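Table S2 (continued). Query chain:
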Amino acid sequence: MSYIMSTLGNLVHQTAFFGLTWGNYLMVLVALFFLYLAVKKGYEPLLLVPISFGMLLVNLYPDIMLTIEDSSNGVGGLLHYFYLLDEWSILPSLIFLGVGAMTDFGPLIANPKSFLLGAAAQFGIFAAYILAIFMGFPDKAAAAISIIGGADGPTSIFLAGKLGQTKYMGPIAVAAYSYMSLVPIIQPPIMKALTTKKEREIKMEQLRPVSKLEKILFPVVVTIVVVMILPTTAPLVGMLMLGNLFKESGVVKQLAETASNALMYIVVIILGTSVGATTSAEAFLNLDTLKIVALGLIAFMFGTAAGVLFGKIMCKATHGKVNPLIGSAGVSAVPMAARVSQKVGQEADPSNFLLMHAMGPNVAGVIGTAVAAGTFMAMFGVM
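Corresponding output:
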């Protein structure tokens, strides 16, 4: 009888009820809230579903992220191995390969001035970097945190790993992906506050047709120019442009389809789940995390505002030919930010069509955020 009672007691104490803290329960609620946003509201479900479920798993069973060094049998937790691919910058680079294979750079090629709007939107990154230093973060940590302002999750993970800021990688990645998902909520109030109804109603001229040769040469030329100036951007810019070359060359359709579909979705599952699994209560519920979330929001808002304000300057310079709303798409949340520009423009004038014009700054923002990350790496001598 004592053996039975002892066995039953061991089984009971093996349940999660005896091992979880109040923090774990709080993070479970946060995970369920993210799931609600993804499923009910449709906010970037491809990202939020795996992230929120990884968050749920690690707070119900912390050992799923157990490191090899801390394990008793030399075998780490399942999601620890997934997470190593984040630290080694493998998954962020593969995400860029898929993004490149899915992206049409035609609007950017047709309107090269879009590069200026994409560059302006990176202002939030450097503003947040200075602010993070004032808030007490070391310089490398401040750089890793500030890249959230580009609204680019893979680049945030890539830079945090390269700068050795793995202890901040979880909060940084979750903040970056969360703000990517919340673009439709965060951006419109800023866009409307900084523009007049008349400016929002501006209709832009149709973009010129872009030849196949231009589309093939673009990824090759961009890779050469950017990597010659900032060699550290090669993993991100190189993979982005390789994926785009798959798409535009027309001779490797199988590779383009694999990169933009099967491979992309496999990587998103592994990356999203492992990122969510970094948000254990112990690692996530602290003052530094709150600072990171706040700094990320400030950076994203500053970036959006800078893009819109530069759009207003271009509007004045072109005598009303540029709608300032497309400047907000300079953050690299593709294609969500471009869709927001389109939506806000149509609220002012239902016949306005800004999507293709906004895609120029949007894809320029992807390149711009990668360049910003490379700039930080060059500043700190990281290869």
